[in-house]
Design a protein that fits this description.
Blueprint: H1 8-51, H2 55-64, H3 68-84, H4 97-116, H5 120-152, H6 157-212
Helix pairs in contact: 1-2, 1-5, 1-6, 2-3, 3-4, 3-6, 4-6, 5-6
Length: 218
Amino acid sequence: MFGQATSPIVAATLWLLVSFSVISWTLIVMKAWMQFRLSRQNSAFTKTFWSARNLTEAESAAQQAQGPLAQLCRAGFEALRDIGKDGANSLQNSGDRQDVLERRLRAEVQKELHKLESGLMVLASIGSTAPFVGLFGTVWGIMHALQDISRTGSAGLDVVAGPIGEALIATAVGIATAIPAVLAYNYGLRQVRLYGAELEAFANDFLHLALKSGFSVK
């Protein structure tokens, strides 16, 4: 893959950047598929939930559905069941019923957001460090080339161009690795915020339905 004159440090740097690129694109494909799947699941569950005639039907729909909204709904109904139990005196269910439900829904929203954020930190790390890794490889390669020039005593273009050109490839590969990672991170972060707003809106609607039903599931 690299020329025989390539410094081992530069070669190792390039292989590291290639590994970063493979990891980055693997995460990009996985996150894209996950977001597509979750979007369809949330859309299908929202339609089914609001088509239910009462909370009992809505709970049954939530038990059969998948996705963040369905999981949030199941957590809400579980909280309502716990609140309605006689003698429920755990710390988790202590306090006003509305406060308990709000606390349980908020905790579930945060749990789902943590799942959606998985992998984004890796993309951010690759996007921020890859250019510097490439620059390190370039600097080291130029140093290696200058040492070869000093040993041969010749600074002709035919002697300098090859080693320095190979060294500059490290910077180019670093930038090429960083750009997709940064773009994917920014897009993924935006999607997490949109999902978070969707979860918060559903939690608020669920709370209003619970208030309307007197915090009971018949």
